[in-house]
Recover the amino acids of this structure.
């Protein structure tokens, strides 16, 4: 929002110093206050650009408002569960920013069937623990009486929360977990899957990441020998599965995968894997290790003289911080990873009108940190919440919320979310996945450049995959 | 040849485990204190090194000059104002207090440094190695880790066996009451022991941070290997800790060579075997009551 930029400039002028993260959160954290301030400042500034969202007063200040003639209903409660502490905390790191944006967008309330309802977001931390996630979800449903559940980041969070929502008949939207562990992981009998009634998911699947990696590898001349680094966790077992995982499609494309076996997370020694990859003279490494394990592996590989041409790694290379942590002498250069969302995705928010770039830049402005992929998906959850609530016919009846959710077709900041198609399953909507490579950056040490967009040409490609050290 | 390599890499890895376990062993030897916050303090040291490196641009190994004294002061104060009050009332209170410290350290780190994984960069040293055969290379950094572990243990051995402080430590460890009768202030001594313990933790934290990346919640998992090294080597025995660390490292590397799934398992099995057949550890008989 350009208004926010204005406000920011004015507040900075008042303070006599640039806004820091703390200030930003203090300001945006209390949406009502910000909106009030926005209105006040807008009044002081006749040429203040677009008058819209911030000029509408927040629910707290509705009494003093003159604008709205719509009747005001009860507060709608949205529950939001994500991991903000514990090993998965990287995924929840942008939550404060996402929630501040959502609160600001909801500050004027949401019009549901002609009644203006204020929105209250109740955010809970899963502490990276599935049991805790289920517990806070239960509290949100039974004690707080939420109307709609949102949940993000890894099957360890989405699955227990979705199960709670399903059991208690509360509509639930989830994201940031490949759809297979979400959908099959929650089935009693995965061989005969039954669609869910109340819980809906949007993200990509294993078949997409395989397609993306294969496309990236085809851009560099290699001997097609691939080393696999699959840990003994949900992701590693899914990726390495000899029937449903990487091996069959790779073999079909002419690649040979060398998989020494599942290892435990936080391993301290990868000499056996490195030895096996060297023996196979692998020129490509792939897998889904956690960040510390990839660092240990990569350092040891260099010590042992193993130098692959391509390293396409899921999970460990997702966040710029993990790539930087590999070292400051370009150790992270030319490593590649999957990209679910980036500032160059040609999508914009249905809630705030921001483009992907606006949203990412806003995060950097607010926190001085580089954008990360969960930002777009976190924001999209609230876009969907707003869209679903607006189309709900009777807010007091959860089944009507669910019915509205079921027929959602919305162009969000992560692409189109559409639950009417039923492909691959009725509860799943797939979002586009492309491939990216880390290269030396301008503002930050590394930038993620999109190098593969085979299935999604609408997302612009900025280069070809470079071999490591080449 | 892979097996030779596995043993070599495992031995080198054992250096890191021994460094990690030394402080734990010392605290147990002197105070009979099971420090559950050991792993988290180790991560805290890595973060302190990160702060020093970011502020000065120095090599993290040079940063040890600052990190070790700071951690020693933290250890001294922790013992003085907190742990000393928990000792003497049975086994449970100090365990609970250190558990509390672990939780506090994790959350403070998360709050201050966020959940981003961080690493310490020691420059070209990190990836340099000497190639012995086509299959075997010895990394300089893992070798340095092992040598430093031996160095730290030699230093501690010297302090414990040759100095006035060491005599007091041994006396207190053997019989606290008797030591008090002859005028040793055991509480002050405990604080000093904790300071030394955290000094070694600081070294371990920096080496860990260079070897891999770390996050605020990594501490407990690091603690497990430190514990196993101490148990395998013998509770409270310094050289036993080195042997324990190396034995654990070799077991893991050899297990990994058999199948990557057996890496952690092989270490745990060795640990269980020691507990079953030699519960006081490999080196406990001669040195059980020593520091």
């Amino acid at each position: 929002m350009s208004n926010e930029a204005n406000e920011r400039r004015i507040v900075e002028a008042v303070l006599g110093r640039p806004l820091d993260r703390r200030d930003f959160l203090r300001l945006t954290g209390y949406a009502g206050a910000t909106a009030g301030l926005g209105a006040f400042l807008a009044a002081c500034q006749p040429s203040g650009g677009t008058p819209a969202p911030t000029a509408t007063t927040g629910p707290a200040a509705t009494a003093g408002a003159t604008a709205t003639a719509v009747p005001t209903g009860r507060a709608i409660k949205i529950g939001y569960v994500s991991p903000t502490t514990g090993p998965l905390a990287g995924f929840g790191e942008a939550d404060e920013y996402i929630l501040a944006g959502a609160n600001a967008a909801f500050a004027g309330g949401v019009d549901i069937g002609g009644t203006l309802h204020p929105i209250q977001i109740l955010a809970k931390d899963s502490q990276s623990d599935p049991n805790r996630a289920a517990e806070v979800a239960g509290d949100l449903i039974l004690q707080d009486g939420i109307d709609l559940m949102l949940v993000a980041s890894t099957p360890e969070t989405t699955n227990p929360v979705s199960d709670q929502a399903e059991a208690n008949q509360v509509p639930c939207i989830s994201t940031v977990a490949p759809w297979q562990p979400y959908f099959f992981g929650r089935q009693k009998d995965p061989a005969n899957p039954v669609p869910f009634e109340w819980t809906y998911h949007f993200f990509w699947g294993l078949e997409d990441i395989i397609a993306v990696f294969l496309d990236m590898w085809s851009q560099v001349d290699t001997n097609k020998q691939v080393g696999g680094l699959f840990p003994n966790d949900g992701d590693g077992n899914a990726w390495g599965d000899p029937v449903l995982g990487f091996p069959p499609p790779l073999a079909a494309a002419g690649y040979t995968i060398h998989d020494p076996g599942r290892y435990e997370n936080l391993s301290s020694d990868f000499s056996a894997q490195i030895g096996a990859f060297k023996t196979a003279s692998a020129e490509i490494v792939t897998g889904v290790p956690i960040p510390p394990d990839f660092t240990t592996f990569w350092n040891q590989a260099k010590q042992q003289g193993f130098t692959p041409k391509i390293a396409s790694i899921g999970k460990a290379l997702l966040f710029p911080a993990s790539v930087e942590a590999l070292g400051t002498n370009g150790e992270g250069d030319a490593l590649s990873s999957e990209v679910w969302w980036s500032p160059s995705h040609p999508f914009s928010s249905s809630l705030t009108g921001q483009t992907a770039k606006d949203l990412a830049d806003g995060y950097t402005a607010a926190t001085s940190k580089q954008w990360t992929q969960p930002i777009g998906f976190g924001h999209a959850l609230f876009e969907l919440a707003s869209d679903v609530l607006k189309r709900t016919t009777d807010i007091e009846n959860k089944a009507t919320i669910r019915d509205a959710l079921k027929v959602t077709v919305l162009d969000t900041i992560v692409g189109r979310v559409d639950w009417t198609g039923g492909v691959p399953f009725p509860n799943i909507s797939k979002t586009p996945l492309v491939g990216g490579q880390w290269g030396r950056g301008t503002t930050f040490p590394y930038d993620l450049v999109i190098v593969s967009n085979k299935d999604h040409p609408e997302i612009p490609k900025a280069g070809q995959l470079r071999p490591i050290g080449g | 040849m892979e097996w030779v390599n596995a043993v070599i890499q495992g031995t080198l890895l054992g250096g890191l485990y021994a460094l990690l376990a030394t402080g734990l062993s010392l605290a147990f030897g002197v105070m009979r204190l099971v420090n559950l916050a050991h792993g988290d303090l180790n991560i805290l040291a890595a973060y302190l090194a990160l702060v020093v490196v970011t502020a000065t641009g120095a090599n993290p190994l040079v940063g040890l000059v600052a990190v070790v004294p700071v951690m020693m002061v933290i250890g001294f104060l922790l013992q003085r104002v907190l742990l000393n009050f928990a000792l003497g009332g049975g086994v449970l209170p100090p365990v609970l207090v250190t558990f509390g410290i672990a939780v506090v350290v994790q959350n403070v780190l998360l709050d201050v440094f966020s959940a981003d994984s961080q690493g310490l960069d020691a420059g070209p040293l990190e990836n340099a190695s000497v190639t012995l055969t086509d299959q075997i290379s010895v990394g300089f950094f893992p070798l340095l880790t092992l040598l430093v572990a031996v160095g730290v243990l030699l230093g501690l051995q010297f302090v414990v066996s040759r100095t006035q402080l060491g005599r007091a430590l041994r006396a207190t460890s053997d019989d606290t009451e008797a030591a008090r009768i002859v005028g040793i202030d055991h509480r002050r001594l405990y604080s000093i022991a904790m300071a030394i313990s955290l000094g070694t933790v600081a070294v371990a934290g920096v080496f860990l941070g260079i070897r891999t990346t770390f996050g605020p919640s990594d501490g407990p998992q690091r603690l497990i290997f430190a514990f196993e090294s101490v148990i395998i080597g013998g509770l409270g025995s310094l050289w036993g800790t080195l042997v324990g660390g190396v034995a654990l490292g070799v077991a893991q590397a050899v297990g990994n060579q058999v199948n990557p799934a057996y890496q952690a398992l092989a270490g745990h099995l060795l640990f269980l075997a020691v507990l079953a057949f030699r519960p006081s550890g490999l080196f406990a008989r001669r040195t059980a009551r020593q520091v």
Q: What stands out?
A: Chain B has twelve helices and two strands. The first strand of chain B starts at residue 129 and ends at 131. The mean pLDDT of chain B is 90. Strands of chain B lie at 129-131, 137-139.
